[in-house]
TrEMBL record:
<dbReference type="GO" id="GO:0015949">
    <property type="term" value="P:nucleobase-containing small molecule interconversion"/>
</dbReference>
<dbReference type="InterPro" id="IPR002912">
    <property type="entry name" value="ACT_dom"/>
</dbReference>
<dbReference type="InterPro" id="IPR006674">
    <property type="entry name" value="HD_domain"/>
</dbReference>
<dbReference type="Pfam" id="PF13328">
    <property type="entry name" value="HD_4"/>
</dbReference>
<dbReference type="Pfam" id="PF19296">
    <property type="entry name" value="RelA_AH_RIS"/>
</dbReference>
<dbReference type="InterPro" id="IPR007685">
    <property type="entry name" value="RelA_SpoT"/>
</dbReference>
<dbReference type="Pfam" id="PF04607">
    <property type="entry name" value="RelA_SpoT"/>
</dbReference>
<feature type="domain" description="TGS">
    <location>
        <begin position="382"/>
        <end position="447"/>
    </location>
</feature>
<dbReference type="GO" id="GO:0008893">
    <property type="term" value="F:guanosine-3',5'-bis(diphosphate) 3'-diphosphatase activity"/>
</dbReference>
<protein>
    <recommendedName>
        <fullName>GTP pyrophosphokinase rsh</fullName>
        <ecNumber>2.7.6.5</ecNumber>
    </recommendedName>
</protein>
<dbReference type="GO" id="GO:0008728">
    <property type="term" value="F:GTP diphosphokinase activity"/>
</dbReference>
<dbReference type="InterPro" id="IPR012675">
    <property type="entry name" value="Beta-grasp_dom_sf"/>
</dbReference>
<comment type="similarity">
    <text>Belongs to the relA/spoT family.</text>
</comment>
<dbReference type="InterPro" id="IPR004811">
    <property type="entry name" value="RelA/Spo_fam"/>
</dbReference>
<feature type="domain" description="ACT">
    <location>
        <begin position="627"/>
        <end position="701"/>
    </location>
</feature>
<dbReference type="GO" id="GO:0005886">
    <property type="term" value="C:plasma membrane"/>
</dbReference>
<dbReference type="InterPro" id="IPR045865">
    <property type="entry name" value="ACT-like_dom_sf"/>
</dbReference>
Amino acid sequence: MISPEDLIALVRNYNPKTNEERLAEAYTYGEEMHTGQFRHSGEPYFTHPVAVAAILTEQRLDDATIITALLHDTIEDTKANYEEVSERFGNEVAELVDGVTKLTNLQLSSRETKQAENFRKLFMAMSKDLRVILVKLADRLHNMRTIKAMRPDKQAQKARETMDIYAPLAGRMGMQWMREELEDLAFRVLNPEGRQSIIRRFITLQRETGDVIHRITGDMRSELEKAGIEAEVFGRAKKPYSIWRKMQEKDQGFSRLSDIYGFRIITATEEDSYRTLGAIHQRWRAVPGRFKDYISQPKSNGYRSIHTTVSGRDGKRVEVQIRTRQMHDVAETGVAAHWSYRDGVRTQNPFAVDPAKWIASLTEQFDAEEDHDEFLEAVKLEMYSDQVFCFTPKGDVIKLPKGATPIDYAYAIHTRIGHACVGAKVDAIRVPLWTRLRNGQSVDIITAEGQTPQISWLEIATTGKARTAIRRALRDADRERFVKLGRELARSAFEHVGRKSTDKALETAARVLRLGNAHELLARLGAAEITGHDVVQAVYPDLIPDRSDEISPRRAVIGLEPGQSFERATCCQPLPGERIIGITYRGRGVVVHAADCDHLSNYEDQPERWVDVHWHDGTHPAVYGVTLGLTIGNDAGVLGRICTLIGEKKANISDLEFVDRKPDFYRLVINVELRDVEQLHSLILMLEAESDVAAVERIRDQVVTHSAKL
């Protein structure tokens, strides 16, 4: 364990004016509070807070953050309390420690209103001081570095949480090095065979081709010297998880991957960065579509750099990042650059941004009356998204999250433009509203008087601002339609448990659910913001629905006219539990599509054929076919084991086809019959956990639309 003297020396290296007595006092207090506590490895527990503090010294953080790291588990796990910490170390440290404690206890994947409410409160506190996130990320990094001491099931749980939540969060905060290390540590737990396979292939490649990194680094330095540019050049092989992800995304083997090496050039000035780009492109051929200029269009976390990919004579591609030293400091430390010290004073980096700004800009979009669940959803969308930059017809820049659509773009300009949107032109070409926008595109929104938001837009929009505005407009404009549908849903839900949805029952449910009245309750139910099960349980909390009675496929969909039949669309294979849209056909009744189905674009100009429908709330039989794509290891008995696992999940295999055979892997398409989307997710998670399964994909219309890869 690092001694107090050594920890203080680490801080003093970048902050000679540090309060050594206060750091020593925090060290002693934390050690005293954790006396008698031990980690899974058998070490004294206090070794963990000290290691977290040491990680934060690498980012040159202030005394308050280092002290918070030393004490971050005291309020939760020891006899210490907020008042005592505040009295000893001040309100600033006490609030930081309390914030880390709340973040530790938060279940980000929960959909319960209580957790959403906690998240809102914590999020508002974080907008004042994001150092709690820096401490929590360092805490998770050390836990992942020492994860081998935990039980295998706990290792898998922590690794999956790290991959899904903390690694993307580190990336969003601008700390790319931490994101890469967290991903690789999680990958080591979730798929050790895949990671070792890539490492072995790297060793083989190096043996066959020699030290490629050293050779290319030398060539780049030579070209820069010819151009009279002073710069540092660094090269490295990409992390195993990064390569694995590229293999899955491109469906290519290791030998076919080209850009597995990355190079970084650090220049003295911004002008030298662009001169360096010219020198590199003169010497090597640029790969089309792989150039990004984050210097002229920086990311919201302050990241600035030029990215380009070039190809040599042998066809091998390498990625090159070019930036100045100050830009590099921000790229390495992300939001921590806002608090970092050098020579005893806060660093004055012109590219460091206030990390609270992007949170403040988000919280402004929501008023106090907004639902907690909606706030939680919007926050998560904002936190875990990269950005793209699009241009208005006048040349103004609009920043949007990666994956944004013209709907998001329209609402980013103005809510009025979003509400009236009927179409869009991207680079002067008319495109559907669910088109994913890309960097540098020019977008022109087409509006029409009398247009109102459609319920299907909720599946198209990706930004919290757009989704919130759409929901609010739908509640106002389509309230009566939602009330009518909600009344039908309530009647069905109450009948399912042998009760009637009387006015008194609905008023009681509204009061329990803290809604204004029965009218508001029905509107929320019709808009799918609450479920029929929620309403029934509010009135009869002790009544357990009889789930043994399966819902007949003939009455599985609610919202049809009397005598009207329906069928599932074969293009998207919607499952009970998914949001659906009905399209009427003469002589065929209603064809039910998933709300995000691309084929709905064929009916964009025929709104009279669209029908608001919902799946019946209850237990459905396993008769709804879904197509899955699997990549499995080529070993004896693997296919039989996979089929057995699927059977154990009560899913029937109706068809199976091999579509690709490789020396190491087989790719096959399986048709399975399921009850609902919950069973699908459970099946995918189970297959993910199987070591011989490299990838699981849901296939719609023979195009992969959902991927769950390790």
